[in-house]
Amino acid sequence: MKVLVTGANGFLGQNLRLRLGERKDVEVVRFTRGDDISQLSALVGTIDFVFHLAGVNRPREPQEFTSGNVDLTNALAQAVTRMAESTGRRIPIVYASSTQAVRDNPYGQSKRAAELALLSATGRHQIPVHIFRLPNVFGKWCKPNYNSAVATFCHNVARGLPIQINDPTAPLTLVYVDDVVQRFVELMDGADPVAGPDGFAAVAPQYTSTVGELARKIQAFKESRTTLVTDRVGGGLTRALYATYVSYLPVDSFNYDIPQYGDARGMFVEVLKTPDSGQFSFFTAHPGITRGGHYHHTKTEKFLVIKGKACFKFRHMYSGQRHELTTSGEKAEIVETVPGWTHDITNVGEEELVVVLWANEVFDRNHPDTFACPV
């Protein structure tokens, strides 16, 4: 399939091109700001599908709304219409419009005029047209300090620059660029169009937040490098927002240091903490060194030896029952501690012991649930 992408170098265009580039059955034809509208007719004659993503929303002169949004779309609609009339080929179009199309301002008026041009084409020739009135789209490669609060906040916070918030309670409706691209590709692949409440094509999920809440979350992402506490970044808005924030890191911030604590026994390093799923750490022990020698009431832990050889010893606090096992970095084996059993770990090898540790709760010095009792 040969696909035309207008606005191919823009935010949506780059993300879509990356996704389409993963497919061997799709060839992308680019139309960018430097190309002439007169080229559209010839391009349309060679393609099977159109993603019309080009548009102007921050022009130097107001008339650029007309040339960038209306004139370009009219030319595209006319080219597709002529193709339908001359060959019977009805080339589908996905158009990235905006929720601003209902507003009585120059930008909104130009987006609405572009919609009408495409709707006219589909009305006369049954050309499949999917118009998306997109809310605020966020994700990697969106231009900061332009028209996206998310992009600006991520860019500035990642660089230690101030952000300006005029009204922290101002509501925002957001869609993530990966979800937009996914829906676009599904339509290209023949999926049934799904209309939203406004009758236009829809992207799901949509997220609602406020300017202040977005700023708080993004600031917390930055602070997590110091606190080691990561937000719940595994799903929903927080997942998408965190991926977006990280994409704005300058290259000299791709890495960061974390505290490490050493003594005669070896080293202990806390790596990552979570709000409700514990923390990850690792420790080392020199040959012959024993670590642990305590029990927990409720805390549980998982140990994984990744280098060296360790002997784990356990003793039940009341019955006195004992258990002992040995594991090494040559075998991927988890050893769990059990509440009510005291336990210790001894390096019984000839090299440094390195052990990865997960605990089901973040260590609290005021309530450590850790009581010394050698095995």
Structure commentary:
By secondary structure, the protein is α/β, with parallel strands linked by helices. The protein has 2 domains: 2-247, NAD(P)-binding Rossmann-like Domain (Rossmann fold), CATH 3.40.50.720; 261-372, Jelly Rolls. It is 29% helix and 27% strand. The protein has helices at residues 11-20, 40-44, 64-87, 106-125, 149-158, 177-188, 211-227, 236-247, and strands at residues 2-6, 27-31, 49-52, 93-98, 129-134, 136-138, 171-176, 207-210, 261-262, 267-273, 279-285, 290-295, 301-307, 309-316, 322-328, 334-336, 341-347, 353-359, 371-372. It has a 6-stranded antiparallel β-sheet, with no helix packed on it. Helix 1 (11-20) links the parallel strand 1 and strand 2. Helix 3 runs parallel beside helix 4, helix 5 runs parallel beside helix 7 (211-227) and helix 5 crosses helix 8 (236-247). The longest helix has 24 residues, at 64-87. The protein is elongated and about 90 Å long. The chain starts with a strand and ends with a strand. The model has no long low-confidence stretch (mean pLDDT 93).
